[in-house]
Amino acid sequence: MRKDYNLEKRKFVIGGFIVVLALVYIARLFVLQLSDGKYKDSANSNAFVEKIIYPSRGLIYDRKGRLVVYNQPAYDLVMIPKDVQEFDTVGFCNTLQITREEFDHRIETMKKGRNYSAYTQQIFMNHLTAQDYGRLNEKLSRYPGFFIVQRILRKYNYTCAANVLGDIREVNQKDIDRDSYYRPGDLTGDLGVEKSYERFLRGKKGKEILIRDALGKIHGHYEDGLYDESPIAGYDLHMGLDIELQEFGEYLMQGKIGAIVAIEPKTGEILALVSSPSYDPALLVGKERSKNYADLLNNRFKPLFDRSIMGAYPPGSTFKPSQGLIFEQEGIVTTATAYPCHRGFISGGLRVGCHGHGSPIALKPALQTSCNGYFCWGLKYMLDNRRKYPKTADAFETWKHYMVDFGYGYRLDVDLPGESRGFIPNSAFYDKVYGKDRWISNTIISDAIGQGEILATPLQIANLCACIANRGYYITPHVVRNIVGVGVLKKSIERHDTRIAREYFEHAVEGMRMSILGGTSHRGNVPGLDICGKTGTAQNPHGRDHSAFIGFAPMNDPKIAVAVYVENGGWGATFGVPIGTLMIEKYLTGTTTREGLATQMANTATYSSKAYGKAEKKTAAKPEDAKESETETKQPTTDGNNGTKE
After folding, report:
1. Positive or negative CA dihedral for 561, 567, 573, 575?
2. pTM of the model
3. Is residue 330 over pLDDT 80?
4. Is 267 helix (H, G, I), strand (E, B) or coil?
5. Residue 236: which of 62, 82, 388, 473 has the closest Cα?
6. N or C: which end of the chain has fewer CB within 10 A?
7. Does the structure show a pLDDT above 50 at 382?
């Protein structure tokens, strides 16, 4: 009997078809039971209600234990859409004092959310007022599917330090994708220590799992609360910040654009970090947060821009002590080396102006009088020294590495978000600008006096001052001195040593002391405090020069190092010296003997238009011709025709 091959083929086809159907069925069953969260949520929601319990956020204290930031209860109205039954919508809206249109808009917006699910809790309205909460709570049983979750809002005991503290905001999708801790409606730190210490401050959420019947009625905790979890409060922070010194700094900087940074040299703890104009941190709390944030963001004076760590400025003559230290270490000068200064540095048709003083001049008097000529000659002799360095580029690389030792050119890794690295050029940069081996010392001589392409943040400028005060090292500047229960983060207390001998730092310190006693910083002399200082007047191609100052005290037992930078403030002695030495006096003595000077500083403005928040509360004195500088734009190399005034 002959075999029917057609029938045989048909049998295999039908068998294969059955196998494929079985595989598809099994795969779909796997997806439904194990992978598809929708059905899992549906099944769970029929039997359980999971309620999130939010932890108390960590408190923030200053260095003296004063409470700066604390928590206040707040309430969110949430809903599980699947559980919502027909209810009196008009009465509901009247209770919350919203319109029906607003109700519909909130529901529509909720459904458009990427993480929307009818089976999980969704926020209908956050930040209920105490009145809203009171009215709604007694009627909540009328609105099945809705319930209230207690949250926290930040409260502030002081109206200062907004840039340091930061704020909290609702998480966005990026936050949720980055960290599984978050779910829609959660809060996270935004800016300042609230952001950089978020994982310590936020704590751990708790939960309650409630069981319910088919009618939706709650029958207590599942397994008598066996799977419930209590929330764990966040860790408290103790800052190195002195909140009263911070308040005083912001008071002095009213009506001005710029920054103050104060550091405890021995520990690297930041005592004050002022960015001006500033704003009241309470503006970014509650229902008005979005509106206030938009106002701050659109303000032309950029109060959200933290100039103390983000602003990149030419440091001007505050740079000169570092130059003297490099020249001594490299054997270019000694304390007896004197250079001419005939109202400036004059070489090969190039002139960098300077004010009148004795000539020739040595290192310490050059620091005392802030002589441009001395430091220009020092850099020229270093870069042109062919017995020591094969090429100009080699000498410049040596110079650049010393500047990096001082903390310039790279981020200092302060424990705050958004720090700028400033800018210290290297030889490759100048090769690109001028051509390889086509630039000489005179081409870049402005670098010697903190001009040219040099840019630094006020934090870096203050850190140089702390390094000089310590005679050769600095500790990474940091705002938080202790996380209660954890300790200080190791990276926050790293010691960084320069390669410069201590004896040369003593010479720089003596020159800075001479500046206070009878030099360009003499306006800042306070008997008994042994202040050492250095003025800076940074040329500004966008308007009036910037006023700068660095100083520390006491001379032989430094407890505070300060940098002040006032955009368009003119000479360093005009704003930098008074503000800097007032800060030193306030910190060391708790008060000031120069109340009149403090009032004058606070009431003198450097711009005509009103800034946002606290800056507009002061009546500004008649401003001089000042323009806001573009601090993020690198300054072009100066041609040396205009001297730096101190």
Report:
1. negative
2. 0.84
3. yes
4. coil
5. 62
6. N
7. yes
For 6-14, the CB contacts below 8 A with 24+ separation are none
Question: 583 near 263, Cβ under 8 Å?
Answer: no
* Tokens (6 digits) for 584: 């030193």
Is residue 461 within 8 Å of residue 431, measured between CB atoms? Answer: no
Q: What is the pLDDT of residue 218?
A: 65
The alpha carbons of the chain give a radius of gyration, in whole angstroms, of 32
pLDDT tens digits for range 514-552: 999 999 999 999 999 999 999 999 988 778 899 999 999
* 23-32 core/surface letters (b: 16 or more CB in 10 A; e: else): eeeeeeeeee
User: Which residues on neighbouring strands pair with residue 353, listed in sequence order?
Assistant: 344
Please, are residues 320 and 451 in contact by the beta-carbon 8 Å criterion?
A: no
Decide: 275 and 259 in contact? Cβ < 8 Å: yes
Any idea how long the chain is?
A: 646
Please give the pLDDT value at position 320: 97
Tokens of 533: 């200082």
Supply 557's token pair.
């037992």
439 vs 305: CA distance, rounded Å:
36
C-alpha to C-alpha distance for 65 and 249, rounded to whole angstroms: 19
Q: With DSSP H G I counted as helix, E B as strand and the rest as coil, what are the percentages for the chain, rounded to 5?
A: 40, 20, 40
Token pair for residue 55?
């932890």
State residue 68 phi and psi, 5-degree precision: -105, -45
Would you put residue 618 in left (φ > 0), alpha (ψ -120 to 50) or beta? beta
**What distance in Å separates the CA atoms of residue 237 and residue 241, rounded to the nearest whole number?**
11
Q: What is the rounded CA–CA span in Å between residue 603 and residue 615?
A: 10
Tokens for 515, please give them.
Answer: 């500046």
Cβ atoms of 480 and 229 within 8 Å: the answer is no
Phi-psi region of 84 (alpha: psi -120 to 50; beta: other; left: phi over 0): beta
Token pair 């040299």 is found at 265
Rounded to an integer, what distance in angstroms lies between the CA atom of residue 421 and that of residue 192?
A: 17
